[in-house]
Amino acid sequence: MHPDLKAVVEVQQLDLQVAELTVLIDSLPTQIQTLQSQLDNFIHAHEDRKKRLAANLKERKELEGEVKVIQEKITKHKDQLYQVKTNEQYKAMLKEIDGEEGNIRKIEDQILEKMIEAEDIQEHIQEAAARLEGEKARVAAEIKHLQDERQKDLDERALLQARRKDLAAAVSDTVLATYERLRTYRTGAAVAEVRDGLCTACNVRLRPQVYNEVRRSDAVLTCENCSRILYYLEPPAAEQAAGGGEGTQVTMS
Fold it and tell me: Which one of 20, 37, 222, 236 has the largest count of C-beta atoms within 10 Å of its C-beta?
């Protein structure tokens, strides 16, 4: 195979690997942020329940204070019963006392609801408190794992980029410029394999003369349709036997 062609095929393979690693590297900060957000949300919910419990206690105390005030009014009214002079005044006073006692029952129902709510909140607080340190440790371990993976990917990418630089230096300026130009505006590969007479990038059949020239692999040729650099690999012996063969096998060496 032509040295430039062999090198540019390998350069593309390295570029594809670098691109895959770059996607992974770029995605890891988002994954880390997602984990941190999950922990932050867990802690926020825990703190919010504590605030709700404190507010619940305050509301209960206020309601209990209202009950105390009403009880004092009832006591005062009962003392006044002995001072009224008519049955109408006596009945009115009893009705007022009965109304105040009804208000107490309503408030006590509210207090009971608050107590039930407080028990539920307290149960969630205790459960979250028991899980909190474990959640912190889990998130920290997962973040550390992701950071380690990211560093491994960065190191591997650096090695691939160094290898790519060495290979690119061995490619002629003309071929390398063509390759780099194709990379900038062609989706996918800038170098395409020819298989069964077709350019595998654009799926257009090559003219027989061009196909034969590409199979010889002694020059750098481009697809007349998509302009990608073309290369050809002889199929394995088993495939040649099944299909009648296409000629002498050409390797990448």
Answer: 222
Tell me the residue type at 215.
R
CA distance 199 to 232: 10
**CATH number of the domain where residue 154 is located:** 1.10.287.1490
Q: Measured in whole angstroms, how far is the alpha carbon of residue 96 from the centre of its chain?
A: 64
pLDDT digits (tens, 9 = 90+) for 47-104: 999 999 999 999 999 999 999 999 999 999 888 888 888 889 899 889 999 999 999 9
Residue 240 has, within 13 A of its CA and on its CB side, a CA count of 11
DSSP state of 205: B
Residues 103 and 206 reside in one and the same domain:
no
Domain span holding position 66: 3-169
Q: Does the predicted model carry a pTM greater than 0.90?
A: no
Give domain status of residue 250, yes or no. no
Q: What is the pLDDT of residue 75?
A: 92
- Is 26 a member of any domain? yes
Same domain, yes or no: 103 and 225: no
